From TrEMBL:
Organism, scientific name: Streptomyces griseochromogenes
Phylogenetic placement of the source organism: Bacteria, Bacillati, Actinomycetota, Actinomycetes, Kitasatosporales
Entry coiled-coil feature ranges: none
Listed name of the protein: MarR family transcriptional regulator
SUPFAM superfamilies with a match to the protein in the record: Winged helix' DNA-binding domain (SSF46785)
Keyword Transcription regulation on entry: yes
Keyword terms, alphabetized: DNA-binding, Transcription, Transcription regulation
SMART domains per record: HTH_MARR (SM00347)
Domain of life: Bacteria
InterPro entries to which the protein is assigned, alphabetical: HTH-type_Bedaq_tolerance (IPR052526), HTH_MarR-typ (IPR000835), Tscrpt_reg_MarR-type_CS (IPR023187), WH-like_DNA-bd_sf (IPR036388), WH_DNA-bd_sf (IPR036390)
């Protein structure tokens, strides 16, 4: 299982953007702007780790920060157009890699994966 997780992390990292960074971009693209604290909680990482992830994404122009209109002491993080473009490119590449990998599986093996993946999702949610 560890080897599988490592390979998935490598496959989903984009250049020097880590899987954690890609996950944050996907969350921001899907649910909209959010605070660093909330992102840390949702991603189940420490605030310090999220600060590092966001700093790297901001340095690359993939996210931007702005003051919270309701609480000026708090920042709100948004995905930029460059972040959306990078995320879409990564998704296209991932779909292609997955399709090529699945070509090597028999129909029976593909069905086993289809049945197993939702179970693994449920397991991951409970960890």
């Amino acid at each position: 299982m560890g080897r599988t997780v490592r390979r998935l992390r490598q496959a989903h990292a984009v250049g020097d953007v880590t899987l954690s960074g890609v996950s944050v971009l996907a969350r921001l693209a899907g649910t909209g702007p959010d605070s660093p604290g909330s992102l840390a909680e949702l991603e189940r990482v420490r605030p310090q780790a999220m600060a590092g992830t966001l700093a790297g994404l901001e340095q690359r122009g993939l996210v931007s920060r702005s003051p919270d209109a309701a609480d000026g002491r708090r920042a709100i993080v948004s995905i930029t157009d460059a972040g959306r473009a990078m995320l879409e490119e990564r998704r296209s590449e991932s779909v292609g890699r997955l399709a090529r990998a699945l070509e090597e599986f028999s129909p029976r093996e593909r069905e086993a994966l289809r049945v197993t993946l939702p179970l693994l999702d449920r397991l991951a949610e409970r960890l």
